UniProtKB/TrEMBL annotation:
It comes from the Bacteria. The keyword Membrane applies. It comes from Franzmannia pantelleriensis. The keyword Transferase does not apply. It holds the Pfam family YdjM. The chain crosses the membrane at residues 62-80, 87-104, 124-148, 155-173. The lineage of its organism: Bacteria, Pseudomonadati, Pseudomonadota, Gammaproteobacteria, Oceanospirillales. Keywords: Membrane, Transmembrane, Transmembrane helix. This is Inner membrane protein.
């Protein structure tokens, strides 16, 4: 989630746990702790793929943060002026303020390495977008009330309760969308194919569905208000013919560990040099994906791939305001389905079947 939301969550948790005893200090310390795991963004791991896949790594590990929180609790119980606060309360304060950050991150699409250093894929159970005002506002209102009134517990506790209820609603909305997907997937023989269901920007009413079947990337938008409307899929090619070459490289294998199978591969020819790129399909929309990385290059004559120091490609400017307006209309109007192919750039037009 965004930094404001994470700081607000940490502040609310801190106020709910020790706000009665520490007042405003609990909120301020909680906000700082809630932001702490994201400081890994200042680290440089060597190239673009490493920086991308290592984010939300060790600093988001439940093992690391629980250990750090325990150490902080022991130090606070020993040296803090508030000697009447039991160790178990300090432990809950520090550990919850720290670990709720990656747990919330794991409810977004990007994924979080909750179990680092274990060699498992990042955890992701996407039910909220990375920025969702309806989740964040109750937390902000609660901590503002606490800061103004001096009662460090009541406002944050109410904010946490309301934001948690919103997550319950989001889970229910996703379950409804997945239930409605069943017949459409069965009709196309895609029941067993990997699929990703995630909310569209800033809401939990309209959901993006991505299904990967070999070279085909199937995309659909499903609203909680669609009722019995038929789920319409669009099909894109994801360049699977280039996948073996990509996976043979260290960066390609790393991206596959991080985002596979939701990757698209493209080859570009510039000055007789072929460049193979990989795009993370989970984030954005077809033609609007912000994370594309160079992996390999080859001379046109030689045709032998060799690895590159990966770089992230710049995302070309697009009419995002227009796209968001269309998405807003699609939430409530199932009779006006949005064709994602109409929004993509030239690189994607030839592949879309809308």
């Amino acid at each position: 989630m965004d930094s404001i939301t994470q700081a607000a969550l940490g502040a609310a948790v801190g106020g709910a746990v020790l706000g009665r005893r520490l007042g405003r200090k609990a909120i301020l310390i909680g906000a700082a702790l809630g932001t702490l795991p994201d400081l890994d963004v200042v680290l440089d791991y060597g190239d673009a793929v490493a920086n991308y896949t290592e984010h939300r790594g060790f600093s988001h590990s439940l093992f690391v943060l629980s250990g750090l929180g325990t150490l902080m609790a022991l130090l606070a119980a020993r040296f803090a002026p508030a000697r009447d606060i039991p160790l178990r309360h300090w432990w809950l304060f520090f550990v919850l303020c720290l670990t709720t950050h990656p747990l919330l991150d794991a409810l977004t699409t990007y994924g979080t390495q909750l179990w680092w250093p274990l060699d498992v894929r990042p955890s992701a159970w996407p039910i909220v977008f990375i920025i969702d005002p309806l989740y964040t506002l109750p937390l902000l209102v609660g901590i503002i009330v606490a800061l103004v009134s001096g009662n460090g517990r009541r406002g944050p506790a109410w904010g946490l309760a309301l934001s948690s209820l919103y997550l319950v609603f989001a889970f229910g909305a996703k379950s409804l969308v997945e239930y409605r997907l069943g017949p459409a997937l069965a009709e196309r023989g895609l029941v067993e194919a990997p699929r990703l269901v995630q909310p569209t920007p800033f809401n939990t009413l309209l959901w993006r569905v991505t299904v990967v079947d070999g070279d085909d990337q199937h995309e659909a938008l499903v609203s909680v208000f669609d009722g019995a409307a038929t789920v319409e899929f669009e099909r894109f090619s994801r360049g699977a013919q280039w996948e073996p070459a990509a996976l043979a490289s260290a960066n390609g294998a790393r991206l596959d560990w991080f985002a596979g199978p939701y990757l698209r591969y493209d080859v570009e020819l510039i000055d007789d040099v072929l460049t193979l790129t990989a795009t993370d399909l989970r984030l954005g929309f077809p033609g609007f994906h912000p994370f594309t990385f160079t992996l390999l290059e080859a001379d046109l004559d030689a045709g032998q791939w060799h690895p590159l120091a990966s770089e992230q490609r710049d995302t070309p400017p697009r009419a995002n305001g227009e796209a968001l307006a269309l998405l807003g209309q699609r939430i409530f109007d199932s009779n006006a389905p949005l064709c994602l192919g109409e929004l993509v750039d030239e690189r994607w037009h030839e592949d879309v079947a809308c």
